[in-house]
């Protein structure tokens, strides 16, 4: 196939369909591994060495495809995840289908479409017989949707070795590319009070649920939208029966912060929460699980380069900042990182998730040109 035909939209869409029709919820490692095997097969005839890292802790395998050239110096690391948030069987509710400019399917936008076009662009590069100036390593991980617990060390190790990191998370609002993301913290709050009979001996009890109320108000009071700091108490529970003073209560908390300064301040505040009620204890555990991705100089010049390539291809590449975390958060503090290089569309994590078919060829071409021109 001549390289001009490589960017035929239908060819790309057919490839994405195969990946989408293997459902890959993070918690179904056998399913994830089925897709990892298919992806590995699709690299067999290309000039790469494959490394498959066995999954641990109930997650699937990770796959690294390294170009046979350029591996002795810092090169390009492409980061993609193969897991999705949709449970097994969701494809019956959201089957792969194309309507107008939209193609639907579980994980098609976040991020099988992006993972596939990055692979496809590499295949196009190899078919053209030209080697990129830099080596290319494409890493496919299995656990991004749960915070990358089993892939983080690998991502950080490869990220430190690379000169550039390209992340194939979906584009934002009309094809914008991502040059900054908030850091993400996750916390658990454990509250212990003193049980009592709520009717006959209320004075003996110390309510953990009442104290949970104080804690929720303190946490929600930390929200500062002007600064871009958000704190969400997403899970709260406690108590056993209506006539018992509750002995235990529990909450799970999500924190988003734009900068490292904010991270230090708010992680400290959350971990430092104390009980306002005598006889009740509050214990908070947790940490920042993704550092903030701040737009540094290296990231800014990588963006400018991508923007000029997009102009040559015929579309405008605008950058944006988002509150969602990605694996780019792990590499951005020390390596020039460009995120949101995947497909355009909408509805990530929903029952109407879709990509825009018209975005496939231009965005695959952009990745192809990045491979060809980054030095």
From TrEMBL:
Signal peptide (residue range): none
InterPro entries registered for this protein in UniProt: ArgE/DapE_CS, Bact_exopeptidase_dim_dom, Pept_M20_glutamate_carboxypep, Peptidase_M20, Peptidase_M20_dimer, Peptidase_M20A
UniProt entry keywords in alphabetical sequence: Carboxypeptidase, Hydrolase, Metal-binding, Protease, Zinc
Source organism, top-level taxon: Bacteria
SUPFAM superfamilies noted in UniProt: Bacterial exopeptidase dimerisation domain, Zn-dependent exopeptidases
Annotated ranges, domain Peptidase M20 dimerisation: 179-271
Location of the active site: 83, 144
Cofactor(s) for this UniProt protein: Zn(2+)
GO molecular function: carboxypeptidase activity; metal ion binding
CDD domains: M20_CPDG2
Protein name: Glutamate carboxypeptidase
Species, as recorded: Bradyrhizobium stylosanthis
């Amino acid at each position: 196939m001549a390289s001009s035909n490589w960017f035929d939209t239908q060819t790309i869409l057919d490839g994405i369909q195969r990946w989408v029709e293997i459902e890959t919820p993070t918690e179904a490692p056998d399913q994830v591994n089925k897709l990892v095997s298919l992806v590995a097969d699709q690299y067999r005839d290309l000039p790469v060495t494959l490394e498959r890292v066995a999954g641990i802790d109930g997650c699937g395998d990770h796959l690294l495809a390294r170009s046979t050239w350029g591996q002795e110096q810092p090169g390009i690391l492409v980061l993609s995840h193969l897991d999705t948030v949709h449970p097994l069987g969701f494809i019956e509710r959201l089957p792969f289908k194309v309507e107008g400019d939209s193609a639907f399917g579980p994980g098609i936008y976040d991020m099988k479409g992006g993972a596939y076009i990055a692979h496809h662009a590499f295949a196009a590069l190899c078919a053209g017989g030209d080697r990129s100036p830099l080596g290319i390593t494409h890493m496919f991980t299995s656990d991004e949707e749960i915070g990358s617990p089993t892939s983080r060390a690998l991502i950080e190790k490869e990220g430190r070795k690379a000169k550039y990191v390209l992340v194939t998370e979906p584009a934002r609002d009309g094809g914008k590319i991502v040059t900054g993301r908030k850091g993400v913290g996750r916390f658990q709050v454990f509250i212990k009070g003193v049980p009592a009979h709520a009717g006959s001996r209320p004075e003996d009890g110390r309510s953990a649920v009442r104290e949970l109320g104080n804690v929720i108000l303190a946490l929600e009071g930390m929200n500062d939208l002007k600064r871009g700091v958000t704190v969400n108490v997403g899970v709260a529970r406690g108590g056993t029966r209506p006539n018992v003073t509750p002995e235990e209560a529990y909450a799970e908390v999500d924190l988003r912060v734009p900068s490292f300064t904010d991270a230090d301040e708010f992680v400290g505040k959350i971990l430092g929460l104390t009980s306002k009620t005598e006889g009740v204890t509050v214990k908070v555990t947790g940490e920042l699980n993704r550092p903030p991705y701040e737009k540094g100089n290296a990231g800014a010049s990588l963006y400018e380069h991508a923007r000029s390539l997009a102009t040559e291809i015929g579309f405008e590449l605008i950058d944006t900042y988002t509150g969602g975390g990605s694996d780019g958060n792990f590499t951005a503090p020390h390596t020039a990182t460009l995120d949101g290089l995947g497909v355009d569309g909408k509805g990530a994590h929903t029952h109407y998730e879709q990509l825009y078919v018209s975005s496939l060829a231009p965005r695959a071409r952009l990745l192809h040109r990045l491979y060809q021109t980054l030095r």
